[in-house]
Amino acid sequence: MVAPFISINLGKFRTSLEGVRRRLQVTGERAILALRQALFEVANDMIAEAQQKAPVGEGRLRESATVEEPVLEGTLISVVAGFNVVYARIRDQGGIIRPVRAKALFIPLKRGVRPGQPGLVLGEDFQLVPGPMTRKDHVEQKGTGYLTTTVAARVPTLADVIGQRVIAIMGRAA
Questions:
Q1: Are 94 and 141 contacting, i.e. CB atoms less than 8 angstroms apart?
Q2: CA 57 to CA 73: how far, in whole Å?
Q3: Does residue 132 belong to any structural domain of this protein?
Q4: What domain range includes position 119?
Q5: Helix (H) or strand (E) holding 78
Q6: Are 99 and 105 in contact (CB under 8 A)?
Q7: How many domains does the chain have?
Q8: Which pTM does this prediction carry?
Q9: pLDDT tens per residue, range 11-55
Q10: Residues 23, 45: one domain?
């Protein structure tokens, strides 16, 4: 009879497999942390780009940009990013604005004009909608797409970009 060429001690093999399993678990946990960091970085990049495209009045819209830490819920990792002013969506996507708590909308025609300031002239400093100078009961806001166009432009390559970031982050942590 010929002696075996390779022999494996199953006890040592099981111990070895357990070590591999532990390392894979640690690697999996590191990969999830890296994915969360990559999502946060990519969301910050997109919001920074959208900030540059956002319309500027007094800068409140741009200053309201926010990215929250990614959250792991079950098998889903998600990040919330956007602009935290009431008018952010309508400035991005457009829509109709109607007065809610007043009889008319106060539309400044000059920078810095606010309701109640003394010496304001209707039609020169501000407009009221609806009001004596218009027949409309609303204002149509054209959207600029500062956020939606930024996101739409990045969607086709988003998975690749996030994957590359995860690899880079895990490489730095090794």
A1: yes
A2: 38
A3: yes
A4: 103-141
A5: strand 76-78
A6: yes
A7: 2
A8: 0.73
A9: 887 887 787 777 777 788 888 889 999 999 999 999 999 999 998
A10: yes
